[in-house]
Write a structure and sequence with these properties.
Length: 125
């Protein structure tokens, strides 16, 4: 699960159209940074979900690639001007185990993402 950091500030400062433009750009970059067989979707608001068929160490490596590819500067139109914004996201990983439901795995990823967002845990790098 990915939750864009400080996204509300974008909407508050630049408006919802700018926020929508930023979400579309981020989604496109996330899709580009993912494998063809990965499932990428917008979960709601400024949250995205990425389903990968791999073990946890490989997922951690893929997350580092995604961070490198998708985090950084974005340019959004603002009338006749363009505005440059820096974007990052908090990411939570969970590994599916036999017998678990998709809902349980997503809940684990959401908890992991929230812990990263609040600084109460750190992802292995």
């Amino acid at each position: 699960m990915l939750d864009l950091d400080d996204f509300k500030k974008v909407n508050d400062k630049y408006g919802h159209q700018a926020g929508d433009d930023l979400l579309k750009q981020f989604a496109s970059e996330l899709r580009t940074a993912s494998r063809r067989e990965d499932v990428v979707g917008r979960w709601g608001g400024d949250e995205f979900v990425l389903l990968m068929n791999c073990d946890l160490p490989e997922a951690q490596a893929r997350v580092r690639r995604i961070e490198t590819w998708t985090f950084g500067d974005y340019t959004i139109p603002r009338g006749k001007e363009k505005c440059k914004l820096s974007l990052s996201a908090s990411i939570g990983l969970a590994e599916w185990k036999a017998g678990e439901t998709m809902e349980e795995v997503l809940r684990q990823a959401d908890v992991s993402m929230y812990e990263e967002k609040t600084g109460s845990s750190r992802r292995n790098s």
